[in-house]
Design goal:
single chain, 209 residues, alpha+beta, endopeptidase fold (from Nostoc punctiforme), 6-stranded antiparallel beta sheet, two-stranded antiparallel ribbon, 34% helix, disordered N terminus, disordered C terminus
């Protein structure tokens, strides 16, 4: 896990004088990461609740807010921003390039599911809710709704799925700070910056759903 590597890097940078304390310090830091990760995953489930609150919001091409309407990637971007504070790329295609690939049989609530609905892969996106259901903004003339992923249409057009929560450090912004806090101040706590896996809304203007 990326966060474990961050913690490990901190200890690798520690002075030799602290070497004898490394096992206990490592245990403390690892416990902090585990606890924070558990809390973060609980928060990930809040994604489904936040998404369900948007049922009935009208579809609008290019829409990024409930009051003005949402398209499929706008729905995903809005929910993740509200729940995690992280701004995802704007388009479904770009959202399909981040996180970790997961199979259809390994889906968990909060995962992103992608479909080919416009004659190219990853042209549509929704948020998996569990129990073979996902929430999405379908198309013009329709509202945000829940669909069943095991229906023939969605099975036929399924492009893949990505997991962000528990995978991207940006999805768990407090983990590194909490792990670092468990290390005595005498030790270096500088951490390498995580690779940028998300971008600001201005960085991507294209909309493909």
């Amino acid at each position: 896990m990326a966060l474990a590597l961050v913690v490990a890097t901190s200890f690798a940078l520690a002075p030799a004088a602290f070497a004898q304390d490394a096992p206990s310090l490592a245990d403390s830091a690892s416990a902090a990461v585990r606890d924070a990760a558990s809390s973060a995953w609980d928060k990930a489930r809040d994604l489904t609740t936040a998404a369900l609150d948007l049922i009935g919001i009208r579809y609008k091409w290019g829409g990024v807010t409930p009051d003005r309407g949402l398209d499929c990637s706008g729905l995903v971007q809005f929910v993740f921003q509200q729940v995690t504070g992280v701004t995802l790329p704007r388009s479904a295609k770009e959202q399909s390039r981040i996180g970790e690939h997961v199979t259809l049989s390994d889906l968990k609530p909060g995962d992103l599911v992608f479909f080919n609905t416009r004659r190219f892969a990853f042209s549509h996106v929704g948020i998996y809710l569990g129990d073979n259901r996902f929430i999405h903004a379908p198309r013009r003339g329709r509202d945000v709704e829940v669909a069943e992923i095991d229906k023939t249409y969605w099975q036929k057009h399924f492009s893949g799925a990505r997991r962000l929560i528990g995978v991207l450090p940006e999805m768990m912004p407090n983990l590194i700070a909490e792990a670092a806090a468990s290390i005595p101040t005498a030790m270096p706590t500088a951490m390498p910056a995580a690779d940028a896996a998300v971008e600001s809304p201005a960085a991507s203007a294209a909309i493909d759903d």
